[in-house]
Write a structure and sequence with these properties.
By secondary structure, the chain is α+β, with helices and mostly antiparallel strands. It folds into two domains: 46 residues, no CATH class; 173 residues, 3-Layer(aba) Sandwich (Aminopeptidase), CATH 3.40.630.30. Helix content is 30%, strand content 33%. Strands 1, 2, 3, 4, 5, 6, 7, 8 and 9 form a nine-stranded mixed beta sheet that branches. Helix 3 crosses helix 5.
């Protein structure tokens, strides 16, 4: 009833907006985003609204690297444990993914990345695919004992899929914010590329939002070049 009252009071709201009621997204139509009174008035009618967002298109680069490519191993600037894929690490991959993306723009491009349970489901979906590449899937952790998942702190993740007979794709490479700039992302990529090469891939691609300049520099430093510009539909918060 509250939502219907808003539409009746503001019938000229014609372009799309999205409100969260207790975490459940609801779509309302509106046009005049430039008028701040709209948000104030709607807040009076929707005491449970916890956020607002508007739909946009995100510009992204599709980058690619040719294999084989020899990258020298570099020890990160901290003690890191490297774990090849095993099903027991699935939850830690999801946690590393969530920690890496929940405050980033990619959380708007792909809303599941900003949600902890969404990351768990995403990992389950990835590893269930027939084209999942375990050899290109790695987890980075810190902790005293690398033998068990309960004692580890996941700080980085990368997953691989095969998208063609000789083509692989990197999925959701992420490093938790406080661990960036220490060589962890580069080492995750290096290990993934070796895994792709061992399974017969000759090219590997990934996508990155154009505003993520640090990630683009990292990918370029290991040989990725921009092959295509694509656009992804998503939402951004409105202040």
């Amino acid at each position: 009833m509250m939502l219907l009252s808003i539409v009746r009071v503001f019938p000229h709201l014609v372009s799309r907006a999205r409100f969260g009621f207790g975490g459940v997204p609801i779509l309302i139509r509106r046009t005049r985003w430039e008028e701040p009174w709209v948000e104030r008035e709607l807040a009076k009618y929707v005491s449970g609204a916890i956020w607002m967002s508007m739909s946009v298109f995100f510009k992204r680069f599709r980058m690619q690297v040719e294999l084989p490519r020899v990258l020298p191993e570099r020890s990160p600037d901290t003690i890191v444990h490297w774990h090849p894929w095993h099903s027991k690490w699935c939850g830690l991959h999801a946690l590393a993914k969530w920690e890496s993306f929940r405050w980033e723009m990619d959380g708007n491009v792909f809303p599941c990345l900003a949600d902890r349970e969404g990351c768990r489901q995403l990992m389950r979906d990835i590893v269930a695919k027939l084209n999942f590449v375990p050899e290109a899937t790695w987890l980075a952790t810190t902790g005293e004992d690398p033998s068990g998942p309960t004692t580890l702190n996941p700080i980085g993740t990368i997953q691989g899929l095969r998208t063609g007979p000789v083509h692989g794709a990197i999925q959701n490479i992420g490093v938790a914010p406080k661990w960036r700039g220490k060589g962890i992302g580069r080492e995750l990529i290096r290990r993934a590329l070796i895994g792709f090469q061992e399974t017969g891939c000759k090219t590997v691609s990934l996508e990155v939002t154009v505003h993520n300049l640090a990630a683009i520099r990292l990918y370029q430093s290991v040989g990725f070049i921009n092959k295509e510009t694509v656009f992804k539909y998503g939402f951004v918060p409105v202040q």
